[in-house]
Specification:
Blueprint lengths: L1 H15 L8 E4 L5 E5 L8 H12 E5 L1 E5 L4 H6 L22 H12 L5 E8 L2 E2 L8 E2 L6 E4 L12 H12 L11 E4 L2 H4 L7 H7 L4 E7 L5 H19 L2 E4 L5 H8 L4 E4 L3 E4 L6 E7 L6 E4 L4 E6 L2 E6 L2 E10 L8 E6 L2 E6 L3 E4 L2 E5 L5 E4 L14 E3 L15 E8 L2 E10 L3
Parallel strand pairs: 2-4, 2-5, 5-10, 6-7, 8-9, 14-18, 21-26
Antiparallel strand pairs: 1-4, 3-11, 8-10, 12-13, 12-15, 16-17, 17-18, 19-20, 19-22, 22-24, 23-25, 25-26
Bound molecules: zinc ion (ZN).
């Protein structure tokens, strides 16, 4: 019995110690001020991590710099929990050696202390709506939502140290365009040093006590439309960039309709450098995906919150807390993917990198190097084992083998002996 208990403890510890590394994106030029944005310290606050994900993909910086870490508490984001290893935002004064968040917290601290960083924002979705005076359980001084949170009025001897004035100017600007009057932004000063023992353990307090101006932007958990929260967060960040003289452009109009569209756009991921999966419109299940028995990872991704998550025998592709598709693995050993293959589509020849995609209208032919077997999934021709050089007509592809809901994406896989050597996707053009 005792042995069994020990064994259980051991496996639970192993499982519990798997915090994932967060990503860091650096946009902009080396000249001018640097704003550091932290998102996703709490995994159940989507405004706090989808807003920085849009920043990463859709903004360009032409003066100054924007550093963005959109997914600080990545494991908790995938599980939609505040903190699956406890509250990460209470670990900045002290942290236990064996804490699963330790590596991330140490890395966050180093970023804060980087001499290039001039100002720090930590993004959240807080409870209720902050008000100076008590109105009810939702609108009151203890609430956090729709506020710039400062630990104290200023940080002396730094360029953006006048936190109170800065927060008031930004709030005022946000209040020009609100979807509902009660979404009004305020400044909440927690007066951390004197009054708030808990906040003394937080990220922003660590920053200001090390001479770095920092504050939190909180949208409200009581606003249920994620796009609306993301829009408020982006407007706040733009206001801070304007205050600091950081110049930016974005490739979309800042309104609810476009934000909703962007939030539904996931792009593609590449797994293990050899398998491409376009996530938009993908089937709920992909079968027989060549994967490694031991270790699989995303090696290229269009979305900062894309991740692989094991679920028993299967592997799920997540974007934040949302499951996009489930992979049923075929455990096949792999070797370095081919560099490229030649493809003929409707009479034209081209080179396609591996993995990548090409479009065709009526037919295509894939020519692989000698010794490589080509397998077009959803196509077969009697007596043919290697489909290299074989012309595939659109009408001969079985829709149930397509990767996507519109039945337009077909896998073309390459094998050398028993080894998988990558794939390309043949995409049937829209009629
Ligand atoms: Zn939070």
């Amino acid at each position: 019995m005792r042995a069994l208990v020990l064994f259980l403890t051991f496996t639970l510890t192993l499982f519990a110690s798997s915090q994932r590394d967060f990503s860091l994106y650096k946009l902009g030029t080396s000249k001018g001020p640097t704003l550091l944005i932290f998102g996703g310290i709490h995994g159940n606050e989507p405004g706090g991590y989808f807003a920085p994900s849009i920043l990463v993909k859709h903004y360009r910086i032409s003066k100054g710099s924007l550093w963005i870490a959109p997914n600080l508490n990545f494991e908790s984001i995938l599980r939609f929990q505040r903190g699956c290893f406890g509250d990460m935002n209470r670990k900045f004064a002290a942290i236990k050696k064996n804490d699963p968040d330790r590596k991330s917290v140490e890395r966050i601290k180093r970023l804060i202390l980087n001499p290039k960083v001039d100002m720090i924002l930590n993004l959240h979705d807080g409870h209720g709506f902050y008000r100076d005076e008590w109105k009810n359980a939702i609108f009151n001084p203890k609430s956090w939502g729709q506020a710039c949170i400062i630990d104290q009025k200023c940080v002396n001897d730094t360029r953006y140290g006048n936190l109170d004035e800065l927060a008031r100017r930004v709030s005022k600007r946000l209040n020009h365009k609100l979807f509902k009057n009660h979404h009004i932004f305020n400044v909440k000063n927690t007066e951390t040093k004197m009054k708030d023992e808990q906040m003394r353990l937080s990220l922003t307090y660590f920053a200001i006590t090390h001479g770095k101006p920092a504050m939190a932007i909180e949208t409200s958990k009581n606003i249920t439309d994620v796009a609306m929260k993301v829009l408020y967060q982006l407007r706040a960040i733009e206001a801070f960039m304007d205050e600091m003289g950081i110049r930016y452009t974005r490739d979309f109009d800042l309104n609810l309709i476009t934000i909703r569209k962007l939030l539904r756009r996931y792009g593609s991921v590449v797994i293990n450098d050899n398998f491409l999966i376009p996530l938009d419109g993908i089937d709920k299940i992909l079968r027989n995906v060549p994967l490694s028995r031991k270790h699989n990872r995303i090696t290229r991704s269009d979305h900062p919150l894309a991740a692989l998550k094991r679920n028993g025998r299967y592997i799920e592709i997540m974007v934040g807390p949302k499951k996009i598709t489930t992979l049923y693995p075929a455990y096949i050993p792999s070797r370095q993917p081919l560099d490229a293959v030649t493809v003929e589509t409707d009479g034209y020849l081209k080179q396609i990198g591996v993995p990548d995609r090409f479009t065709f209208k009526k037919r295509f032919t894939v020519f692989a190097p000698k010794g490589i077997r080509v397998n077009v999934i959803g196509f077969s021709k009697k007596g043919v084992r290697n489909e290299s050089g074989i012309t595939v007509s659109a009408t001969k592809l079985l829709p149930k083998y397509a990767m996507d809901r519109e039945n337009r994406l077909f896998r073309v896989e390459f094998y050398e002996g028993k080894y998988f050597r990558g794939m390309v996707i043949a995409e049937k053009a829209k009629e």
